[in-house]
Design a protein that fits this description.
The chain is of the alpha/beta class. It has two domains: 8-220, Rossmann fold (3-Layer(aba) Sandwich), CATH 3.40.50; 224-278. The chain is built from ten helices and 13 strands. Strand 1 (8-17) and strand 2 form a beta hairpin. Helix 5 (135-149) packs parallel to helix 6 (165-181). It is elongated and about 70 Å long. It starts with 7 loop residues before the first strand and ends in a 6-residue tail after the last helix. It binds adenosine-5'-triphosphate. The site of adenosine-5'-triphosphate has 12 residues, from strand 2 and helix 1. Keywords: ATP-binding, Nucleotide-binding.
């Protein structure tokens, strides 16, 4: 039986490493039973945030809750959280099957069948040791362990970056297929968005230790609006909104706005001789997390 998915939340969380402030008052809730994408630039604080949920560290201040409790204080909740990270939590110098036996013995929802099926998909030979696998195969092994554990809160911290394209797509398909049969809370961190965004129902964008945006992927996609046309007409509309980016070519201007325009508003824009289009999640992320303002 699939256990109930865990929700998770951070309230006003600060994490400092010496002088470095990795999280700076982060507030966010991860809905139970949903796949959420956690996106942010290098150094934004993704790994730090995820390590709090997995009880690998405590916040300097603020509150962390997983399934309603402080995970650090609750071994049962801690056992229901599985974090897959690049370093891999494996027995490095012994055959992969030793690691599999360890997970089978310690993960209450472990699926031997799913593990066998995915090891086959990724062509991982279980008599080899994790240390003797290629980097991509080691990442795939981490993904297999994360999926086959079927933890109520499963977290993938950029694990698939070393995998080649066919393996990454096999991973995405495996996430969706197993999630459909055994719904759980899944958080996937990434700064490569286009490939993975079809998995996300919710998206959290983190920037310099703060949560910039947390919403459904559809609502976030609707926010990015591009306008292209004669400078006067475009600027007259842009004046009313937050401009994320601006490009000029002769008398033509293109602006990216942080606004969701409804059908009536789009018709009015077109009537003014301005083209309107939607900006993808990746472009919106790039514009929202740029260091300088347009
Ligand atoms: N152990 C540590 N000691 C000191 N500073 C750290 C430590 N771990 C992380 N940091 C700093 O905290 C900030 C956030 O790092 P974090 O690893 O959480 O970012 P990230 O979003 O996961 O980045 P990436 O996408 O590059 O993996 C960075 O500025 C980083 O230098």
């Amino acid at each position: 039986m699939t256990p109930a998915p865990f929700g998770a939340e951070l309230r006003d969380v600060v994490v400092r490493y010496g002088d470095e402030q990795a999280l700076d008052g982060a507030d966010v809730a991860f809905r139970p039973g949903i796949i959420t994408g956690l996106i942010g630039r290098n150094g934004a604080g993704k790994t730090t945030l995820l390590s709090l949920l997995a009880s690998l560290r405590r916040p300097t201040s603020g509150t962390v809750r997983v399934d309603g409790v402080d995970p650090f204080e609750d071994p049962l909740v801690m056992a229901g959280v599985h974090l897959v990270r690049e370093s891999g939590d494996v027995i490095g110098d012994e055959p992969v099957r030793r690691t599999l036996r360890y997970y089978a013995a310690t993960r209450p929802n472990w699926s031997t069948d799913l593990a066998a099926e995915l090891l086959d998909v990724f062509a991982i030979v279980t008599k080899k040791s994790p240390n003797s696998l290629s980097r991509g195969q080691r990442s795939a092994l981490g993904a297999v362990l994360g999926l086959a554990s079927r933890a109520p809160l499963t977290i993938f911290d950029e694990v698939y970056l070393s995998m080649d394209a066919p393996s990454r797509y096999a991973f995405y398909d495996a996430v969706l297929a197993d999630y459909a049969e055994h719904p759980r809370t899944i958080i996937i961190s990434s700064h490569l968005i286009e490939e993975v965004e079809r998995l996300f129902e919710d998206v959290v964008i983190i920037d310099r230790g703060r949560v910039l945006v947390a919403d459904s992927a559809d609502a976030i996609r609707a926010r990015g609006t591009g306008l292209t046309g004669p400078a006067d007409a475009v600027e007259a509309i842009a004046r009313e909104h937050t401009v994320l980016a601006r490009q000029r070519l002769g008398g033509v201007v293109r602006v990216t706005l942080d606004v969701a325009l409804d059908d009536d508003a789009r018709r009015a824009v077109r009537a003014a001789g301005v083209e309107v289009d939607s900006v993808g999640l990746q472009d919106l992320f790039v514009h929202l997390t740029r260091k300088e303002t347009p």
